[in-house]
Amino acid sequence: xxxxxxxxxxxxxxxxxxxxxxxxxxxxxxxxxxxxxxxxxxxxxxxxxxxxxxxxxxxxxxxxxxxxxxxxxxxxxxxxxxxxxxxxxxxxxxxxxxxxxxxxxxxxxxxxxxxxxxxxxxxxxxxxxxxxxxxxxxxxxxxxxxxxxxxxxxxxxxxxxxxxxxxxxxxxxxxxxxxxxxxxxxxxxxxxxxxxxxxxxxxxxxxxxxxxxxxxxxxxxxxxxxxxxxxxxxxxxxxxxxxxxxxxxxxxxxxxxxxxxxxxxxxxxxxxxxx
Length: 275
Hints:
This protein has 275 residues and is mainly α. The chain has helices at 2-13, 18-28, 31-43, 47-60, 67-80, 84-97, 104-118, 127-142, 149-177, 191-205, 212-228, 232-252, 259-274. The chain has 13 helices and no strands. It starts with a helix and ends with a helix.
């Protein structure tokens, strides 16, 4: 009698607004009713409602036939609700909890997607970017024939470009600082030297990147400025190094708009070395 009354009350309350329906289900519904409502809420784009219900249900459904579906649906609700940090962790939880599950392939993919969505602009810390790259690579290794592979590959290139942009900004910042701290005659501490090392390491790791000419130009300019501001004992050697760098730049980019600058540097280097 009591159960019949509760069901009748819930039915009556469900005829109210959507928000009221959710509150009734959340407070008084049984697990099956909550799960069906969560799926319906997700289908209708009410991702916060779905997520709220599923947070509780993933534990209560554990061991049942619906357990893995509930966990995957929770991750998708979080992702769709733009809660990318939570989504990435829930997708990871699915891959470890159900390594042979029905949704394991898209779950691995969406670990990368969630971190991709969290990836900040190049100037900021790129931990999410590195995490996304690792996740996409793992996905492609595990599912080489997946229909999602082309999208993962495209995202991978985009994220790698972002890491390269960050390195370029760092190298450029060192160059712009120049001898600001008055340490220009130190091989280990000069900002120009830091610019050279940052640019060279990036080209070593990404030899065919789209910013190759920009990095090479920065190296050339840094070496020339390092020579220009050197002490007498290091000056000639640094001008020789700068001259070699200029010739290398011209050989690799003969049509560059910066060839004239390289030739100007060469003339200056030759003059100093000759004198």
